[in-house]
Amino acid sequence: MTTNQECLCKFCGEKFNTTADLKVHVKKGVECRKLKGVLFVCLRCDDFHTTNFDTLQLHLDGCREVGLCKFDVIEAQRKKISELTRQVNKQNTPTKTKKTRTPPKKTKSRGRTNSIKKKRDVEPDIVDSTFGKIEEAVDPVEYINNLYLAIIPVTRYTRHLKKIKRERRVIFEKGDIVNYKILLSKNLVCLLDVLNKKEMSEKKRRKIILNHFTPIDLRLMRYDGYENLSPDGSMLQELEFILSGRDKPANFNMDIVNMVYNYSICVLPVKTAIKTLLVTANPSYVYSGKRKSDPYQFYYRDREEQGVTYWTMDCRMIDFFNTVRECIIPYLIKVFRKNYSKVFSDNVYRECFFENMSGLEGECKQILQNLLFMSLHKKFLKMMQNLVMENNCKNMKTTDKLNLKHDDPIPEDVLEDTQEYNCKKLFDDISPFHLTKLVNSIGFY
């Protein structure tokens, strides 16, 4: 007789009466196929991951570490910090009072103020425990190298490695993916040197490395085995969070696209990536018109002199659209081909190739979705226009000087859609039938 365990799908957890039904489900089940190769991560203890749904359920039933995920902790604690700061400012704000001979209650006031200040000093440590904290004057590379060297004489080094993993993320928090990647490569060399000096076996060294670096870290370094690991949802939330908060130039330059000309555009929807560039508290790229149909009055801040802000028109957003398209599309094609070749050792098209890509499945699907969406030129342009019109509308003042106020009499035509043309570049050999089928299988947000 068939047991319940044998009839339980390890990918989605659904139960079946017979193994025959289970085999049909695993082979043809739509929802089940979506979960194949997905890495489940426990955000309670942050120390467990598996690709089997039933194993995840068993862990969750016995997991003792119950709490919020990192992203939620950051938001909750920043709200607390903001509220405590408001209270401190209110407490320190002088108020007009009538002169009286009654002495002020200094002890009570000081006690309350000191209590608030102490709380304010403690709360940021919770945020720092996620992203790390390194003093501005300290060179992060030298600082972290010294932390690695401190591991050599000690027997118990797990706590030290966790501290380094946390402190290193101060570079990640700044949103500079390029410098973060350089730091990771140097950290890997330093860690390998330390582990060699401790005379550890190859198997143990590899286990420590896979645990010491996040899936995103391993991808950026392209460390052996990275293709089997998927970044979890909280890591992608953090990536979006730091890109949105990254310092941007006061004046706009088309080179700003370089801020997402990296791994982030491979794992985040292109709309999210563009939003992190343009939507800020003090936007340098704005819409100053009223037309919702065929809008053209898009401006970017060119410079500011003697209290006057000079704005340059980017009619219909065409210049920025072309910059993003010409920069990002070749990069997406390059990364997809590299990932595909890593798994299959060539770039020849295979049907149902996603199912065999393991940890790279989600990344390659996002790359393909971004590529095909950007290849729908009119739809992509409309999305970017709406993004600015909904978030960066500006009423120009007398201190704002525009280089152009009227519609460009010679507008630049938007190119025809190139979905199949760009998709074909992903493979060395793909038939027209399979090319059309692949393009039509991708949905958009």
Q: Brief description of this entry?
A:
By secondary structure, the chain is mainly alpha-helical. The protein has helices at residues 19-28, 30-35, 53-62, 70-92, 106-131, 140-149, 158-173, 177-197, 202-212, 215-221, 233-245, 264-267, 270-278, 318-344, 361-375, 377-391, 419-424, 432-441; strands at 40-41, 49-50, 285-287, 298-305, 308-313, 400-402.
Q: Which descriptors would you attach to this protein?
A:
single chain, 445 residues, mainly alpha, 3 domains, four-stranded mixed beta sheet, 18 helices
SSE order, as H and E? HHEEHHHHHHHHHHHEEEHHHEHH
Helix and strand content put the structural class at mainly alpha
Q: Work out the number of β strands.
A: 6
User: What can be said about the biggest beta sheet?
Assistant: 4 strands, mixed
Strand-residue fraction? 5-15%
**Sheet with most strands: strand arrangement:** 3-4-5-6
Describe this structure in words.
The protein has 445 residues and is mostly helical. Helix content is 54%, strand content 5%. The chain is built from 18 helices and six strands. It has helices at 19-28, 30-35, 53-62, 70-92, 106-131, 140-149, 158-173, 177-197, 202-212, 215-221, 233-245, 264-267, 270-278, 318-344, 361-375, 377-391, 419-424, 432-441, and strands at 40-41, 49-50, 285-287, 298-305, 308-313, 400-402. The protein has a four-stranded mixed sheet with strand order 3-4-5-6. It has a two-stranded antiparallel sheet with strand order 1-2. A hairpin with a 7-residue loop joins strand 1 (40-41) and strand 2 (49-50).
